Sequence to fold (329 residues):
Amino acid sequence: MKVSITFDRLRWEEKALSDAAEAAGLEATLIDSKGLIFEIPKKNEELGDVVLQRCISHYRSSLLTLTLEGAGLKVINSYAVAETCSNKLATSIALANAGVPTPRTFLALTSEAAGEAAEKLGFPLVLKPFTGSWGRMVTVVRDRGTLQSLMEYKEELANPQEQHMYYLQEYVKRPPRDIRAIVAGDSIVACVHRIAPPGEWRTNVARGATSKAFKPDKELHEMILKAARAVGGGILGVDAMEPDSGYLVHEVNNTVEFKGAQSAVGTDIPAQLIKYVAQVARR
Amino acid sequence: MMVPNDAIVGEIISCKDCSSEYEVAEISNGNVLLKPAEQVGEDWGE
Fold:
């Protein structure tokens, strides 16, 4: 069985996945997507039984997945899943429609409407970009004056989506940590607490958060898998919070990084992910 | 600049002194060719 692992920035994760695939007896090929060209329609000739999409650039990943699926290839994750996860609004809609508890969220299409949404949410609130990751540009807005200043800055951005439109979310009071679950199909491969570093409220490992093994209870276990199904399933990173009022899922990541989680758990995460990849290839 | 023995094409190497990032472009007869790595993009992430 042949597995292609496409990347645009080779990280520890991609090398670990390739090693795990070889150890599982699969023929694994690491492919730098930056050098690929395709004549449309692409023919499924050399990329094997399944492609594990690991590009770090959303748009590169999305267009490549679209092309590969157009050639009849199985891609993990699918184009539909990638599109849902890469847009925070689409993720929020998918979670809410599936009945997964998620923070109260507003879409506003102008700065004036954003002010109205902020009044409904109350301060503090969280302002997030629609796309992007690692906590980049995710901001706690503590009062109306700060919101006004941020909106003026946003109006200067080049990206029309981020320039004029707003994703506003309730600020959830929680311990200085969140929960990251790595899901493959119907299984939780690993689950950790991500503990924010001193002076930082965001819990992204990219921002210096540390990971500690954590076993979800039955309620959270089911909620995590429901969230993964809500976005279409695959290999995903489900992020949850634990305020006093009960668990909330706030994000689902399409190209999950797991170096931090691997440092905290005994499970061989890449081996488990590759096991799922092989299952998909056999379908 | 130190390049790990197990480095492969596509891997990112950071300069210990200035933190500049380079990508391994080619490995041939023990020689490693580096090129400047792509800068972090607005759409990068998980």
Q: What stands out?
A: Chain B touches chain A at residues 8-12, 37-38, 41-46 (CB under 8 Å). The radius of gyration of chain B is 12 Å.
